[in-house]
Design a protein that fits this description.
Elements: H1 14-17, E1 43-45, E2 55-60, E3 68-74, E4 86-89, E5 97-100, E6 104-113, E7 118-120, E8 125-129, E9 137-139, E10 150-154, E11 162-168, E12 180-183, E13 191-193, E14 199-209, E15 212-215, E16 219-223, E17 230-240, E18 243-254, E19 257-267
Antiparallel strand pairs: 1-2, 2-5, 3-4, 3-6, 6-7, 6-8, 9-10, 10-13, 11-12, 11-14, 14-15, 14-16, 17-18, 18-19
Length: about 270
């Protein structure tokens, strides 16, 4: 048997044989393809858009070579994989996958994984869950209101189960701990309010259901009570060139502003 020495050994030429395919790691695995990331796939949803109850399923086609799937959810379009997107199910998701979401605007995507890499679904699902419907708030308060007593009235909010209302000294854009709660999910229109002192107030109503809440418009009420005018009489004794006089000085306080009135002198013999 002829001994093969290294200098005489050459790999077969693919051009000559017309059949040999060399993988990236060389000659030692001619019949094995290199590992590949998972294949392309798409997702579907049973949700309406808008979806009125937040309950729906998503399904996806098979991603060839995938070992697991992860579901991502965001408030922005899912055009790439990012840690800033919330992971709804981490490499444990199976199709169909059930959702029960609160009020919001959502983008949902699925990523398939194997030991080589990952593939994002060729599409994403965009849907809106509206929660309670839009509605408006009004009042019969005066402008300004002179007694601190008035009613709040509002239109119906579609899909609302109950209402709560709040006031603050600034515009209200969301519910927070800084607000004063006047009625916690028990309010019915019209809702009477009384005993407000002079000042500027912002009011809003929140309509609630199991998906979340929707705020009404803000209304701004200025209360200027008529009995805020309080007279104050001051008598001062002054002496000029040996002549003593009583000086009557009148002041009144009006809405935290002090204004001076006329003076009147009386001679004392």
């Amino acid at each position: 048997m002829k001994e093969i020495i290294p200098s005489e050994f050459v790999y077969p030429n693919t051009t000559a044989t017309g059949s040999l395919r060399l993988p990236y790691w060389g000659i030692n695995g001619l019949l094995i393809d290199p590992p590949q990331p998972p294949g392309n796939f798409s997702i579907q949803s049973t949700a309406d858009n808008p979806d009125l109850d937040g309950k729906f399923n998503i399904t996806w086609t098979n991603s060839e070579g995938a070992d697991s799937y992860t579901i991502y959810i965001s408030n922005n379009p899912l055009t790439y994989i990012s840690r800033k997107f919330e992971i709804h199910a981490y490499q444990t998701a199976t199709s169909p996958f059930s959702f029960h979401l609160k009020k919001g605007d959502y983008y949902i995507g699925v990523v398939s994984y194997n030991e080589t890499g990952e593939s994002m679904s060729s599409n994403y699902i965009h849907l809106t869950i509206p929660g309670p419907g839009a509605f408006s708030l009004n009042t019969n308060a005066g402008n300004p209101d002179t007694d601190g007593n008035f009613d709040l009235v509002w239109t119906d909010s579609a899909r609302a189960d109950n209402y709560s209302f709040f006031h603050h000294n600034r515009y209200i854009s969301k519910i927070s701990d800084s607000l004063t709660i006047l009625g916690n999910q028990t309010a019915q229109t019209p809702f009477p309010l009384e005993g407000f002192k002079s000042g500027k107030y912002y009011f809003t109503i929140a309509a609630h259901n199991n998906l979340g809440y929707t705020l009404s418009n803000n209304i701004n009420i200025i209360v200027r009570l008529t009995f805020d005018v309080i007279p104050i009489i001051t008598i001062a004794i002054v002496s000029v060139a040996g002549v003593s006089s009583a000086v009557l000085i009148g002041y009144y306080i009006k809405h935290k502003k002090i204004e001076k009135t006329k003076k009147k002198k009386h001679k004392i013999k």
